[in-house]
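Title: Comparing notes on inverse folding

I've been comparing how different people in this forum approach sequence design from structure. To keep things fair, I'm posting one structure and asking everyone to reply with a full sequence. Here's the target:
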């Protein structure tokens, strides 16, 4: 994505996020049971959904890398997982704040929803040492892709196992006695889900653009070195001696 396209996406993300937050704090009604603390739901749940989808998307990109051997897919897989891990940290923080407000404890170990997400999060935290323990770049990319595929397949299986669990004290906001969220709450939730999704996409594209720029700079540096120009590794000032005569001639 070009810098201009990223700027437009960033503006859109900011506008949707601001609209969602305004709906959360100034429009949507208070929950009858949870009260004001239920508003964390509009941030916590979209973060969790986007993070889990991002993990699975990383597995899809890993599969595409193994099939095509295109390093772009490996880069996509890495960035998808990296950004989803960051979102996972936000999920755990907002979840603990919600748990403290609702249950009086930051963590409840016998709650499957909490523990299952923690397991997924810790699984993906091992992605980094696993990947960078391999020095060869090609093997590193292949092994990382296999990890991404395997872990990505575990995410929906883990989710289904949690939904089938009998012991659930985690709030079930999508399944109330009235048949689900009221219209205003559902609308606000969907706006926040789109906002968080756009935020994830924006940050992913920003990181990919940074990696692309860094790669181009590295190629340019190697080309200059091959032509005898100095780089930051050259303390002798070769570039100055080569360029200075041209500047003086002008």
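Reply #1:
Here's my take.
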């Amino acid at each position: 994505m070009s810098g201009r396209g990223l700027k437009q996406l960033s503006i859109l993300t900011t506008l949707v996020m601001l609209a969602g937050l305004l709906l959360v704090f100034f429009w949507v009604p208070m929950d009858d049971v949870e009260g004001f603390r239920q508003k964390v739901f509009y941030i916590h749940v979209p973060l969790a959904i986007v993070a889990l989808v991002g993990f699975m998307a990383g597995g899809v990109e890993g599969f595409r890398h193994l099939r095509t051997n295109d390093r772009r897919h490996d880069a996509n897989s890495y960035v998808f997982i990296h950004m989803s891990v960051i979102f996972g940290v936000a999920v755990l923080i907002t979840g603990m704040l919600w748990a403290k407000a609702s249950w009086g404890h930051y963590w409840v170990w016998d709650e499957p929803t909490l523990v299952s997400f923690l397991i997924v999060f810790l699984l993906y935290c091992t992605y980094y040492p696993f990947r960078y323990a391999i020095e060869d770049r090609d093997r590193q990319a292949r092994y990382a892709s296999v990890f991404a595929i395997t872990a990505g397949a575990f995410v929906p299986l883990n989710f289904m196992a949690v939904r089938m669990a009998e012991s659930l004290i985690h709030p079930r906001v999508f399944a109330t006695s009235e048949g689900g969220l009221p219209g205003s709450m559902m609308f606000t939730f969907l706006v926040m889900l789109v906002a968080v999704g756009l935020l994830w996409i924006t940050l992913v594209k920003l990181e990919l653009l940074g990696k692309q720029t860094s790669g181009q700079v590295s190629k340019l540096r190697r080309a200059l070195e091959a032509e005898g120009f100095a780089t930051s590794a050259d303390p002798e000032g070769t570039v100055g001696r080569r360029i200075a005569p041209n500047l003086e001639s002008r």
